Amino acid sequence: MILCFDIGGTAIKSAEAFSPEDIRPRARVPTPTQDFAAFVDVLRAAVAAASVRPDRLAFSIAGVVDPETGRATVANIPCLTGRRLQHDLEAELGLPVDLANDADCFALAEAAVGAGRGHDVVFGIILGTGVGGGVVVRGELINEGGGFAGEWGHGPVAQRILGTPEVILPAFACGCGQIGCLDAVCSARGMERLHAHLHGGAVADSQAIVSGWIADEPQAARTIAIWLELLAGPLAMVENMLGAGIMAVGGGLSNAPPLIAALDRAVRARILRRFDRPLIVPAQCAIEPGLVGAAILGLARQGQ
After folding, report:
1. pLDDT for 187-239, tens place per residue?
2. pTM over 0.90
3. Of 127, 72, 101, whose CA–CA distance to 256 is shortest?
4. H or E, element range at 39
5. The CATH number of the domain where 9 resides is what?
6. Which conformational region is residue 145 in: left (phi greater than 0), alpha (psi within -120 to 50 degrees), or beta?
7. Which residue segment(s) compose the domain that 45 sits in?
């Protein structure tokens, strides 16, 4: 059995995994964010409460692990940042530990039991609080040792002159420290920032903007047209580079199927390969993708 955890800034969720088809969610408890000893105590209690002694522990974390140093950066859980997290957790808990970031676990879940089943290359796209992703090739993460592969939302690539009539956008500052990232203008909060810039400071949340677009409201239609143009070129470049058979979208913005269908059409018009079916589709993993992805990671390494 693999005991898997989805570690977020608010809560730690856990599940017992016996196979990719038999994953049993268990507890959800608050995350100790400032105290590593308290954090470990939560995990230790979960191990003690498991139905059987786990073979391994597998973690989905909202952060990244440097593949050369093994040190973690987890912005919303400060007590983990700077630690050689796999080493430290194995020392504290006495069990083998597997780690991957939440976008990678999402991509693994979609490749194994979601929209990516049957495809050699799967790109998992996150469009929500942030813009991110993960890459799975023939059932395995391309960066199994940790790292930053799939983080297409960061880097100064956001187009500045767009639309009909044309508009010139500023290079919005991103939380990663750069300017001009897609994350800063195409995440849910980024869409709201874009809408305010286009319409003289108009305030609307992303859900209302998307609903307005579906209802043919002119301001929302203008915002979504620019948003689609911002995303379509970079995603087309990702597709040309990876040759993904499917791109599965998760995150809050994926809950609007017409929006994802419009993004799919915009991207397929810009890529070299011609698809006669959708390439970009809503995620299909029915239960917590962080837990499912962590379970698949741990199960693959069971017995090693």
Report:
1. 999 999 999 999 999 999 999 999 999 999 999 999 999 999 999 999 999 99
2. yes
3. 127
4. helix 36-49
5. 3.30.420.40
6. alpha
7. 2-105
